[in-house]
Write a structure and sequence with these properties.
Oligomer: single chain
Distance between the termini: 46 Å
Shape: globular
Number of helices: 4
Largest sheet: 12 strands, antiparallel
Strand content: 15-25%
Number of strands: 14
Structural class: alpha+beta
Amino acid sequence: MLYHSTHEAKQVRSNLCRLYLHVWYHTIQLFKSMSMISIIGSFVFLSSALLQQGEALSVDGPSILSRRAVVSALSTAALSTSAIAPSAANAATEENPKRSFRRYPSIRFISALGDPKSSSGSESETWGLWRDDPGPRGVYLKDYDRRLKANNNVAPAGWSFDPTDWWVEEHGLIMSTPEPLPRKSVNKETKEIIPEKQYVVTGDREITTVLTVRDDGTWELEKGSLYDVTHLPCRSAAYRGDTCAPMNANLKDFPVKPGAEMPVINGCAKQDYAVLFVLGEVV
């Protein structure tokens, strides 16, 4: 929606600020009696509710705030609050009290392949990791010629576009390619290389748990299935091939509904990926 006055635009931002305060007020009331994992889940839930309201407040072009940006900001605030600082993930350590966790400064994102109904599998060597939300750093498909091709396939945010292997999210934004998901860790006492790595993951719904990925490609969740820790509104797919080009996309196919497959693009081999929110890691 295009606002026709500065006053209207300011009113939109004022409404968003009030929504933020509403979220903060209700979450603070929960701090006294909830576990770490429950608090994180509440932030994610409230953030989603905020954005359902906020979507109606967008201006012409990208939304004022993306879903992932708000969830990342609010969940990080929750993780940083002194009321919950003594433990990074109390509920996740019940079966192994000797574990300790390192919280990330902001939420990271895993791109995962596997049976949604499974709690374990293989081929995690094909999974990827975005250390920052790739959406706000992306380029809309409709702007490919002007903002990528005309700039030697370098995005304004600085990442490089590979014409034969590129990623798109649910709003039609071309994203940076995720780095390979790290599957090794280091013992902090002995400095020994451990052929596995553990992450705290969630899907912006009911389950927050520990994901273990191993150097041999196997993976497993301590609780729930891959579907349970998939953030359904975040859709992503890789489009690959020598004849695969952004101008072949049908812009009417976007945005993609939560949980739906990404659209086919003529000339491209498509691979859909689940998106997992990553809150931290075992250290």
